[in-house]
TrEMBL record:
The keyword Transport does not apply. The lineage of its organism: Bacteria, Bacillati, Bacillota, Bacilli, Bacillales. This is Pantothenate synthetase. It catalyses: (R)-pantoate + beta-alanine + ATP = (R)-pantothenate + AMP + diphosphate + H(+). It comes from the Bacteria. One of its GO terms (biological process) is pantothenate biosynthetic process. Transmembrane segments: none annotated. Beta-alanine binds at residue 61. HAMAP family: PanC.
């Protein structure tokens, strides 16, 4: 496995793979890898000839008071884990390498970015589509792999790929969870022992809401039930808890076939997100 930090080095690797007519799987990450990332990498390896993993903490998707500076970073650790999952090349650029100049040209994520996480993180998804579009152009992947935990992000990226005719496939991998149900996240390391004990209540609350909605078709009651469970079982502060259609992230109607039940909760100072995607059959 190779680790490169320069765009020219990445392009050399990509050009050689293309010359040999090899398929490329891309796994974009911000590093501090966990089992969720490694599941993406292993899936990419199973379905492609070579796998590129990007490790880049992208400043354009962090707000002024967010955790860009303190976001966990450990490239030597990530390198070992990525190699164990079959990654062929890690692209770990500096901020200066990815953004050598600011031309003022921007990509806007649109309506889908104004709700859920986007409502409390203005500009976040603009930064996401900016870096993902750059990575798609640089790595020229056959397929790109994302986790369902960031369901809003995946929906926006799928829309960008569709509307701007990116020549690649998006593959979404189900959320990887701890044994007690907590969605795996690089930010889980921020939790204190007490906060970590409370955090699984988020997943329980989502499942209570899903079951209630499938039985009654009453979205308001389902949301209220989940909010009550979180309030009674954690000291957390709810950012949002919503039921929307997926992947368009719109208000549900009688015609909605696929649903996204999504939440963000501050447990202590740590913002945790989780979601369920399901049909009326409960799948």
């Amino acid at each position: 496995m190779k680790v490169v930090t320069k765009i020219t080095e990445l392009k050399q690797f990509v050009q050689q793979a293309k010359k040999e007519q090899k398929s490329i799987g891309l796994v974009p990450t911000m590093g501090y890898l966990h089992d969720g990332h490694l599941t993406l990498a292993r899936t990419a390896k199973a379905n492609n000839d070579v796998v590129i993993m990007s490790i880049f903490v992208n400043p354009t998707q962090f707000g002024p008071n967010e955790d860009f500076e303190s976001y966990p970073r450990d490239l030597p650790r990530d390198t070992e884990l990525a190699q164990s999952a079959g990654v062929d090349l890690i692209f770990a650029p500096s901020v200066e390498e990815m953004y050598p100049a600011d031309s003022g040209i921007k990509l806007l994520a649109g309506r889908q970015a104004t709700i859920l996480c986007g409502a409390s993180r203005p500009g976040h998804f603009d930064g996401v589509v900016q870096v993902v579009a750059k990575l798609f152009h640089l790595a020229e992947p056959t397929r790109a792999y994302f986790g369902q935990k960031d369901a809003q992000q995946v929906a926006i990226i799928e829309t960008m790929v569709r509307d701007f005719n990116f020549p690649l496939e998006i593959t979404t991998i189900p959320i990887v969870r701890e044994e007690d149900g907590l969605a795996k996240s690089s930010r889980n390391v921020y939790l204190t022992e007490q906060e970590r004990a409370e955090a699984p209540a988020i997943y329980v609350a989502l499942n209570l809401a899903k079951a209630h909605f499938l039985q009654t078709k009453n979205a308001g009651e389902a949301i209220a039930l989940a909010e009550k469970h979180i309030a009674e079982n954690t000291a957390g502060r709810l950012d949002y808890l919503q039921l929307l259609s997926y992947p368009d992230l719109a208000t549900i109607t009688a015609r909605t076939e696929k649903f996204l039940l999504a939440t963000a909760v501050y447990i202590g100072n740590t913002r945790l997100i989780d979601n369920l995607i399901f049909s009326l059959e409960g799948e």
